[in-house]
Design a protein that fits this description.
Number of strands: 0
Distance between the termini: 51 Å
Oligomer: single chain
Order of helices and strands: HHHHHHH
Structural class: mainly alpha
Number of helices: 7
Radius of gyration: 25 Å
Length: 193
C-alpha cells in the first residue's frame, strides 16, 4: 500500500504543473477576449484529482491541517487518546467516501454522466467520479495503518520521554556553583534564570 500511496502522490505532484498551465491558458484567453470553455472544467478535474490522490500521503507525513493546542499541552496518554479519536473520525469519513463515492461513481458510469456546467466543452465526468472512492481508499488505508500502530507509538513515546532528563534537573545539574543566582543561565545562552 505504501507503494500505491507514493505513486498516487507522484501523479498528484505531476498534475500541479499541468494545472498551472491550464489556468494560465484560461487567463490569457480571457484577457485576449477569446474565452475558452474547457480550461475551467479541466482545472477542476486536475485540482480535484491532485487533492484526492495526495490525501493519504499527507496524513502519513502528518502534514494535514490540524489544531493541536490541546495535544501540545497534554501528556502522552491524552495525546494518544486524541490522536486515536482523530484517526477514527478520519477512517469514518474515508469509509463514507469509499461507499458513497463508489455508488455515485457507478451510477455516473452507468448513465455516462456529463458535466453540469453546460459549456460547449461538455465532457463526460463519470471517470472523475471514480477518483473519490480511490482517494477515500488511500485515506482509509493510511488511517487504519496509523490506528493499528498507535499502541506501539505510545510505548515508543513513553520510552523516549523516560530517557530524556527533565528540564529542571538538567538546569540545576549544569549550572556552575559559583555563578550568581540572577546571572545568565548556561542552558539558554544568556537569558536570566
Amino acid at each position: 500500500m505504501k507503494r500505491l500511496q507514493l505513486i498516487a502522490t507522484a501523479v498528484s505532484a505531476a498534475l500541479l504543473p499541468a494545472l498551472v498551465i491550464v489556468v494560465l491558458v484560461n487567463v490569457v484567453s480571457r484577457a485576449s477576449g477569446q474565452a475558452l470553455s474547457w480550461p475551467f472544467e479541466v482545472s477542476i478535474f486536475l485540482f480535484g484529482i491532485s487533492a484526492l490522490l495526495a490525501g493519504g500521503q499527507v496524513l502519513r507525513d502528518r502534514e494535514h491541517v490540524a489544531v493541536d493546542i490541546i495535544p501540545r499541552r497534554s501528556g502522552i496518554l491524552t495525546r494518544t487518546a486524541l490522536r486515536g479519536i482523530a484517526l477514527l473520525v478520519i477512517a469514518a469519513v474515508a469509509v463514507t467516501l469509499v461507499v458513497q463515492g463508489s455508488l455515485t461513481a457507478y451510477e455516473s458510469t452507468r448513465i455516462r454522466e456529463r458535466s453540469i456546467f453546460q459549456t460547449t466543452f461538455d465532457p463526460e465526468i463519470w471517470w472523475f467520479r471514480w477518483m473519490i472512492p480511490l482517494g477515500g481508499l488511500l485515506l482509509l488505508a493510511e488511517s487504519l495503518r496509523q490506528l493499528f500502530r498507535l499502541p506501539r507509538t505510545v510505548a515508543e513515546d513513553i520510552a523516549a520521554e523516560s530517557e530524556e532528563p527533565s528540564d529542571r534537573g538538567t538546569a540545576a545539574a549544569t549550572a556552575p556553583t559559583d555563578a550568581p543566582a540572577s546571572g545568565p543561565s548556561p542552558r539558554t545562552g544568556g537569558e536570566p534564570r
